[in-house]
Amino acid sequence: MRGIQSPGLQLGNKRLRHELKYYIHLHDYEPLRQKLRMITTQDPYSVDEEGYHIRSLYFDDIHDTALYEKNYGVFRRKKYRIRIYNKSDAVMKLERKSKFGGYICKEAATITRDGYEQIMAGQTEFLIEEKNDLLHDFYYEFKNHLFQPRVITDYVREAYLMEAGNVRITFDKQLMTNVNTLDIFDDQIMMVRAIRQPMMIMEVKFDHFLPANVSYLLQHLSNQRSAISKYVICREESKKYYNL
User: Can you give the pLDDT at residue 203?
Assistant: First the structure.
């Protein structure tokens, strides 16, 4: 049975998905995760029951366009980031997350540790030699709009999947941000909490419809739904310590 239904949306060759975000309290999280485990499967990339670790470095231009557009609710906007998992360089991705009203699209391209180091040094010419449109786009953004690394987001993600509706439900816990470095591999990196416990962020992504059993679980959380941005939250927290 289908709960929330909506027509799918395609923009060129980009497949767009719905995204719902919620602030979740610990007393909602515990029973919700138990119910989800009965109707979904845990993300296979999880290293344990708590999920896996994500650290992302976000970029913005000299005018802070991504920050401005998010804060003012611009209909069509995008953000670029470099993401690693479990504090390892085994898998590194340069990603672009685009927003089109209530729809999102995430694109990703694999980069190497050496590529990351070159980007951090401002040496992005190698990207134009790659056979990947996303890397080319990032190169032109970096050069034409003077992209700079702005903030690090760091959290543990607990993720659940459902084949019907291509649903993905995530709990992002222990959100932290940087205060002394913009290098995601710096051994001396110092972090502070960006959201005070016992709150966390829940995200629900789906294609054309949200199954009724999932929709039912979300009903009592309707007043906790919010236009949350981990990028914005962490930028604001970092500014308390130094100007980014």
Answer: 96
